[in-house]
Design goal:
This protein is an alpha/beta fold. Helix content is about 15%, strand content about 15%. It folds into two domains: about 80 residues; about 130 residues.
Length: about 220
Amino acid sequence: MNNISKKNVCSKQCELEEDINYITLIFEEEITSCENMFKHCNIKEINLSNFDTSKVTRMKSMFDHCENLEKITFGNINTSLVKNMYALFHYCSKLTALDLSNFDTSSTITMESMFSGCESLNYLNINNFNTSSVTNMNKMFTNCLSLTSLNLSSFNIQKETNVELMLSQTSKNLIYCINNNSFTKIESQLIKKNVLSKIIIALMVGVQYQKNNSRNRQMRR
């Protein structure tokens, strides 16, 4: 186990040795920015369970281009003050699963390129995302080639939000769960991808969708 201090990580590019596979963060000082914290690190696993992020406002490029990273443990991470999540997981190309159900995104303004380049990601839990303050989702899921389903039902995409290329270069077989409000904002992208037949409009068929899913699981058994 390797404990990393603010001195050699926070707010600068990480220069850890290539043979380090696992680190856990324990900071004694108050952290307000995680920008570029692990950028270009060669680490395979990071544990943030004991990392106090209650004062953090910036997570821009925190794991950007961590191309060997396979697992992140977030625990009860506090992201309630984070405004910038630009390129947070950008090109974490070996990550296969991300559970962000504990993320509080009520203060977040930009999610641009947040998951772009996560080409191995096949499980993504963003079911509790609050996007009411977000103004930029450009390229948010670009090149997420392995995702088979994407639940955006909690998203409240505002009229002024930039969603250009939000879903570009994702799988044509990707199944979406989208509320009616957000659908009008990204409909043109979905038409270009020829995936309209696979969209589930949550507010229109939400309960029915759950019933159908249960029925399908029973039939498989």
